[in-house]
Design goal:
Elements lengths: L1 E9 L3 E2 L9 E2 L7 H12 L13 E22 L6 H5 L8 E21 L2 H12 L15 E10 L1 E7 L3 E2 L6 E14 L2 E13 L5 E12 L2 E3 L7
Parallel strand pairs: 3-5
Antiparallel strand pairs: 1-5, 1-6, 2-5, 4-5, 7-11, 8-10, 9-10, 11-12
Length: about 240
């Protein structure tokens, strides 16, 4: 038997999972990527922002119970001016450099989303994650910093792996008859011109229709509460 941590996720208001490559138009992914779910778990555990020390020990899967309704909003974002001139040129500016400017951003958001999340890891990590979801260290969000999320019935279940043709969770890779989306699967730091930059490692996922999809070839899966779940076995 293997153990898996599972919980329900409901966003009572709106949520958005921004594509990191977008600028003034923030396009949302249709479900929280593995990086988002791992980040939520880390917030519950009290880890600092961008902490990823044990990311390779966790695999994540998700069932979309409700994809919600898509809306668009406009926001004015205030940003501080970044000085790129030489000190000599900047000194000639009577206004100095410490001022702000505003830009208008269009954001895609979703209302009424609901998911069931699944986490696979060594047992000690699952126990730690379970306790954290029961009593989170930080307030939990799913998406942006004001996208509150309710955690429902976090629990550890025991299950035997099976081979199944019908899959209900998101599926790594290309599956005919599914909606395809490429999401961030992992963020890594790289040194570019002596500066640290975050690099996105994407993963293609197939979103099955409601009720699951019948595959031509069976996959290794876990049957949990009437749904067959598959994980991305690659480290992220």
């Amino acid at each position: 038997m293997e153990k898996i941590l599972t919980c329900g996720l409901i966003c009572p208001f709106w949520t958005s999972f921004r594509n990191p490559s977008t600028v003034n138009v923030h396009v949302t992914y249709p479900f929280p990527p593995p990086t988002t779910l791992y980040g939520m778990l880390n917030a519950a555990r009290g880890m600092p922002q961008d902490w990823q020390d044990d990311r390779d020990e966790w695999q994540v899967s998700l069932v979309i119970k409700s994809s919600g309704e898509s809306i668009q909003t406009f926001s004015k974002i205030q940003k501080i001016y970044e000085e790129k001139r030489s000190k000599a040129d900047a000194a000639k500016d009577e206004f100095g450099k410490a001022f702000f400017y505003k830009i208008t951003v269009m954001r895609q958001k979703m209302i009424g989303v609901e998911y069931t999340a699944y986490f696979k890891a060594p047992e000690d990590r699952l126990i730690e994650g379970h306790q954290a979801l029961l009593s989170p260290h930080w307030p939990l969000y799913l998406g942006e910093s004001d996208d509150l999320v309710d955690i429902l019935s976090p629990r550890i279940v025991e299950v035997e792996p099976i081979t199944a043709n019908r899959i209900h969770s998101i599926i790594p890779g290309l599956i005919q008859g599914c909606r395809l989306v490429k999401v961030p699967n992992r963020f890594t730091k790289q040194i570019v011109r002596k500066k640290e930059n975050w690099h996105v490692e994407p993963q293609l996922y197939s979103i099955p229709p409601s009720g699951g999809i019948e595959l031509s070839k069976p996959k290794l899966a876990y049957s949990i509460e009437g749904r067959n779940i598959v994980f991305n076995g690659n480290s992220w």
